[in-house]
Specification:
mainly alpha, 0% strand, elongated
């Protein structure tokens, strides 16, 4: 997948967010999508058009993956999953709730990025004021700015070395092919760091309960079952969900 296709994926992701999150108040609009010029004057035009349609459908199938990996979704869903494991109830909240909450928090965090891509790239392109290449470039820039801000320099350096591309002169010269995996790696590292910090208070409760049971000679009683109500009580008393969500949102600056 080349740089132009990745840029088109990011622009399509922004378009999907705008369509899903905004309700039109001016009635129905006719949206036309044209792939190629549709001409067959040179004999193989229809074949080229069919091939372009096949490529377009394949690219569209990758939009959900790009929407998750090029946004804040990865960090949020990993932290919430680790929090569920730290509490000792791996099935509650259900996976649907975790993924749904992560998606809505992603929309909340990424709204400025999507709006910038929509205002600077998608809407001008739909209004025929800029061409496709300019729309892709303008649509990628907000995502690159977001990912560069959240990517660790050492992770970015690793993928620059692995790509064997010429060393970028400025941070803006970093290609999207190098930036995207570096961003995902940085997000995973940040998410596991936050998850470790969430484990500490629950681990302390487990140790205290296990020590108390040992001192009373109740070695046959499972410390996990006794500690679970105390962990839930502590989490509810400190309004844990609000604190975790607030920390996640603020971690993106």
């Amino acid at each position: 997948m080349n740089r132009r296709q990745l840029g088109l994926l990011l622009l399509l992701a922004a378009a999907i967010f705008v369509v899903a999150g905004c309700t039109s108040t001016t009635g129905q609009q006719n949206i036309q999508v044209q792939v190629g010029d549709g001409q067959a004057s040179n004999g193989n035009g229809q074949f080229a058009l069919s091939l372009e349609l096949l490529v377009a459908i394949t690219v569209l199938s990758l939009v959900p993956a790009i929407l998750m990996l090029a946004t804040s979704f990865t960090r949020i869903v990993v932290v919430l999953s680790l929090l569920r494991s730290a509490m000792g109830i791996p099935n509650l909240p259900p996976n649907q709730v975790i993924v749904g909450l992560s998606m809505f928090l992603t929309f909340f965090v990424m709204t400025p990025v999507f709006e910038e891509a929509n205002n600077n790239a998608l809407q001008p392109y739909l209004n025929n004021t800029i061409d496709q290449n300019a729309a892709i470039q303008r649509g990628v820039d907000p995502f690159k700015t977001f990912m560069l801000k959240e990517t660790r320099e050492e992770d970015l350096q690793v993928f620059i070395d692995l790509s064997k591309e010429p060393r970028p002169k400025t941070i803006n010269d970093v290609s999207i092919e190098v930036l995207l995996p570096a961003f995902v790696t940085s997000e995973l590292k940040t998410a596991f760091t936050m998850g470790f910090l969430l484990y500490i208070p629950f681990l302390i409760i487990d140790l205290v309960v296990a020590s108390a049971l040992m001192s009373m000679g109740m070695v046959m009683v499972s410390p996990t079952q006794i500690a679970l109500p105390f962990k839930l009580l502590l989490f509810v008393m400190v309004d844990g969900w609000v604190l975790v969500v607030q920390s996640l949102v603020k971690s993106f600056g």
